[in-house]
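Table S2 (text version). Query chain:
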Amino acid sequence: MESKYIDWEGKRLHYTAAGAGPAVVLLHGLMEGAWVWNEMTAVWSAEHRVLAIDLPGHGQSEVLADVHSVPLCARTVEAVMRAEGVAEAVLVGHSMGGYVALAVADLFPDKVKGIVLFHSQAAQDGEQGLAQRRRTIALLEQGGEAKKDFVTRFMPTLFAPHNRERMADKIAALTEGGRAMSLEAVLAIQKGLAERDSYLHVLTGGLPSAPAPRPLPFCFLIGRYDEKQDTGKVMGQAMLCTRAEILWLPCGHMGFWEEPEACAAFVRDFLNRL
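Corresponding structure-token output:
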């Protein structure tokens, strides 16, 4: 796995590259980094060119703006694809990374071959979700100690209760990574998520794409014990797609760690059918 960088208007963006073949782009979730995909990359890079990107302010990528909007993040993904000479790719997004994947399809439809959504969905935040997002921003604005406390409380909730003891090392790694992020970076992405638009039209194929409109194939991985997504809502969104494959998992929000073998095989098979 090779560590690489590109310049974005004087700022550094980091990603890793591995394997050869049809391109797959991996996009991590909130306060994560490209490293969370290492185990999946080891499997999928046997047959594909796998790029795992540190989104702005995460991992080794620098903060780009006061607000990291979802479209801004999508443009950085397209910039990495362009730098790598990738004309078309399957996008794999975890949670926030799924929002970014949908935005890439919205902005650059001819560059997306299909989308895999790990514990993610296409609708914008509802009133309750947006209120919670605003409370989080207000908390973070109190300073670094508030951010550390938020990260410490947040990370265990990504896992199903019955998996938290078994996943203690992963929770610790996520907590360490989240604490290492600057307050500026965490606030920038939280503010960007607070203004996120709906991308339901991407699911339904309401996008222009040369030479003619085409519905995208989707793959949904859904955790039965996911505390961060409304699983009923996600299942309903899958029904909007012309083609959707669904894997229902006995896990929380981190299927690629909680159920790695099932996730790796299901997505590999999806990729090979495209």
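Notes on Table S2: The chain has one domain: 2-122+198-273. Residues 27 and 224 are 22 Å apart (CA to CA).
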